[in-house]
């Protein structure tokens, strides 16, 4: 495993390794992705092996252009409106897979749909050079905290990765929002780095929230996910002695002075700042060895919906298999 920057030489090296069936950790605006050529079954299998990921959990495919997306999926008019407004960016669309599209079945988990996103920056450059989509879930052990820095990838996956492109901290810090369009109905399969309200404002449609008992249609729908080794206690207004505290805003929970360790997602109650800090701060508090991480209440509007989604999955009983 080698960690390098993101200049032209690094992009070319990453594309070459991916073309040879390698695994490359790539920074995106959301989190670092563990990327492999989505058309190469053996390369995709390495993703599952490295992450210890359940085979029934599908992967997001990343493309560098709408034209590339159209080689693999059918795009309906409403999905195209969303693409025009929010690509490149933190929005994933679940779309019908074209017949004979060369995406390997491991990517789709046997579904007739494909989750697609167009990232910004160096990830798009690598994909364009490779001229094939990349399957790229978050670059971390399955179910654990997503990586938002190259160092976090190295600490977790180490030699399981052939190359890490170091693009610095991810600016969004949460995985993409995932939606699926069916006629005039837009289902929110996973809240993420694009607030649901922005989609609703563009389309004039209220997003349908996914049934928690629904079958898995997209990544990030496992009940227990994004989990630290410590237990998580949410919406805490009174701290127990010895707990680590994940705080939010200027006011503290009762007994905060007894916290073993303390990090604040955003002193200013800024949800965008909190989203960017979430996984890094969870990982840092987990590394202290605390048995319990107590989390102060976080509003549910805007990006708070996605933050609370990740926290609830991190706190879910371990071993649950579906949402």
Automatic annotation (TrEMBL):
Record-level Gene Ontology MF annotations: ATP binding; double-stranded RNA binding; L-threonylcarbamoyladenylate synthase; tRNA binding
Q: Which Pfam families match?
A: Sua5_C (PF03481), Sua5_yciO_yrdC (PF01300)
Just give the chief location class. Answer: cytoplasm
Q: Which GO terms describe its biological process?
A: regulation of translational fidelity; tRNA processing
Record carries keyword tRNA processing: yes
What is this protein's function per UniProt? Required for the formation of a threonylcarbamoyl group on adenosine at position 37 (t(6)A37) in tRNAs that read codons beginning with adenine.
Q: Under what name is this protein listed?
A: Threonylcarbamoyl-AMP synthase
Q: Species name for this entry?
A: Phyllobacterium phragmitis
């Amino acid at each position: 495993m080698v960690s390098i920057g993101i200049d032209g030489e690094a992009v070319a090296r990453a594309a070459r390794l991916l073309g040879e069936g390698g695994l490359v950790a790539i920074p995106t605006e959301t989190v670092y992705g563990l990327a492999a050529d989505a058309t190469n079954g053996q390369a995709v299998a390495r993703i599952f092996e490295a992450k210890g990921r359940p085979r029934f959990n599908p992967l997001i495919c990343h493309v560098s252009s709408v034209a590339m997306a159209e080689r693999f999926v059918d795009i309906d008019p409403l999905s195209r409106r969303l693409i025009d407004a929010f690509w490149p960016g933190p929005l994933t669309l679940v779309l019908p897979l074209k017949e004979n599209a060369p995406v390997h079945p491991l990517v789709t988990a046997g579904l007739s749909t494909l989750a697609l996103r167009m990232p910004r920056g160096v990830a798009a450059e690598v994909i364009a050079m490779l001229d094939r989509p990349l399957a790229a879930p978050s670059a971390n052990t399955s179910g654990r905290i997503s990586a938002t820095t190259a160092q976090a990838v190295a600490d977790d996956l180490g030699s399981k990765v052939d190359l890490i492109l170091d693009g610095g901290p991810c600016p969004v810090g949460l995985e993409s929002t995932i939606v699926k369009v069916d006629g005039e109905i837009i289902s929110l399969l996973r809240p993420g780095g694009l607030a649901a309200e922005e989609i609703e404002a563009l389309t004039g449609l209220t997003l349908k929230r996914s049934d928690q008992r629904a079958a898995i249609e997209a990544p990030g729908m496992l009940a227990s996910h994004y989990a630290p080794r410590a237990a998580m206690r949410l919406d805490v207004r009174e701290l127990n002695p010895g707990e680590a505290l994940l705080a939010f805003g200027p006011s503290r929970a009762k007994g905060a002075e007894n916290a073993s360790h303390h990090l604040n997602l955003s002193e200013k109650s800024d949800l965008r700042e909190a989203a960017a800090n979430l996984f890094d701060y969870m990982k840092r508090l987990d590394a202290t060895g605390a048995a319990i991480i107590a989390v102060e209440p976080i509003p549910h509007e805007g990006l708070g919906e996605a933050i609370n989604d990740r926290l609830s999955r991190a706190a879910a009983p371990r071993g649950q298999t579906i949402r």
